[in-house]
Amino acid sequence: MHQRPFLAFACAHLTDERLYAAQVAALEADYECAVFAFRDHDSLGGMAEELLARTPTRFTLIGLSLGGYVAFEIIRRQLQRLERLVLMDTTAVADHPARRAGRHVDITKVREGGIEALIPELPARWLHPSHMQRAELTNLMSAMARSIGARGQFNQQAAMLARPDSHADLERLRVPTLLVCGREDPVTPVHDHEVMAARVPGARLEIIENCGHLSTIEQPEIVNRVLRNWLRETEADSLAP
Predict the structure, then answer these.
(1) Angle subtended by helix axes 66-78 and 44-53, to nearest 10
(2) b/e map 131-155, b = 16+ CB within 10 Å
(3) What angle do CA 220, 222, 228 make, to 5 degrees?
(4) pLDDT tens track, the chain, 241 positions
(5) CA-CA 20 to 30 A from 135: which of 88, 198, 199, 237?
(6) Alpha carbon distance 109, 120 (integer Å)
């Protein structure tokens, strides 16, 4: 049995367990933490089933970007397993044609040149402008992308290309729900989070200032404080069946 509340962290595209290293370090004294990086499945269903197979009967799910898309799939499959939900820098909107075209460009780029062909573009795509020259961040992003690799990149893109609009799924939620977004997130903007929050009864939205798409590594201390406070505030609610 799991004596402490269980937190499952679902990773973003081209990121691994290090995406949540600061959050796990801050929370592991009080919570049982597991981080899921997705390499081997080319569908959100496969990713969701992997996570569900390695978590207790009920748990709190924290998903960033692709991790949020996996969360939507878990809502569709086994909503009753969720105690609480945190959606970070993600969107319930299905890909529009330009986004789909961009995914196909990335697939081709990696197929022809390997993961190294894509890595130099990632900081400008995802980070706040003031963070693009931070070597510790860009080096971390490069290392995580290499960890996922070319095959993992293809699988993740295939899963994201097939994802549906998930706004109706959010309306089914009756558990404590937190949405977190970097103020300057260029990929999944604040507006998308406002729309999602409006679909979930009682949801809270927290905006992280001076932050782009990867809030957990761009502003880890702020994210840690937001998560810790919210988890404490919602502890009693999360125990309700």
Answers:
(1) 70
(2) beeeeebbebbbebbbbbebebbeb
(3) 95
(4) 457 999 999 999 999 999 999 999 999 999 999 999 999 999 999 999 999 999 999 999 999 999 999 999 999 999 999 999 999 999 999 999 999 999 999 999 999 999 999 999 999 999 999 999 999 999 999 999 999 999 999 999 999 999 999 999 999 999 999 999 999 999 999 999 999 999 999 999 999 999 999 999 999 999 999 999 999 999 876 565 5
(5) 88
(6) 12
